[in-house]
Amino acid sequence: LRLWLWLWLCGCCGTARGLRIHEYLYFQVLSPGDIRYIFTATPAKDFGGVFNTRYDQIHLVPADPPEACGELNNGVFIQDQIALVERGGCSFLSKTRVIQEHGGRAVIIADNAYDNDSFYIEMVQDSSRRTADIPALFLLGRDGYMIRRSLEQHGLPWAVISIPVNVTSIPTYEMMQPPWTFW
């Protein structure tokens, strides 16, 4: 039973880190096809909402400007979609609030260290006492970079994703994970 519990904690739902369990949320890029992988993200620690709905096909729209610390040039495309934002320039909570104010359903904040393919940052609330209602997720820098690069190469304004994805229902041999990331 202990071995099963350890495998369950480390394999499908998170990594045991001391006394705290690090949770993961998964999403799959459906289009463009060259990045049709299942990506791993971590939810914000103490702000933001949770996914109460599964979106089978929703747009993942890169914010313009990428750091989303103020007014967006493409805010109209964020409405009812999920925004891909880059870390830096302002707090995680500020970015989440900007996306929420533009009608976004969630925000995925990619690390601005493009070579980061293994270290998850714990997103915490800033000292402003503000709140946000939409889910906020942290994405590894390499994953965010590869998604943005693919969109630029194809001249696309957004990716189509499914979120969240239950990876426990996918056989291991069918799970398409990014080749640059070690799970």
TrEMBL record:
Q: Which Gene3D superfamilies match?
A: 3.50.30.30
Q: Which residues form the signal peptide?
A: 1-18
Q: Where does the PA domain start and stop, copy by copy?
A: 60-144
Name the CDD domains on file: PA_hPAP21_like (cd02127)
Q: Where this protein primarily resides, as one coarse class?
A: secreted
Protein keywords: Glycoprotein, Secreted, Signal
Which InterPro entries does the protein's record reference? PA_dom_sf, PA_domain, PRADC1-like_PA
| Gene Ontology cellular component annotations, sorted alphabetically | extracellular region
The entry's function note states: Plays a role in the modulation of physical activity and adiposity.
Q: What is this protein called?
A: Protease-associated domain-containing protein 1
Species of provenance = Oxyruncus cristatus (sharpbill)
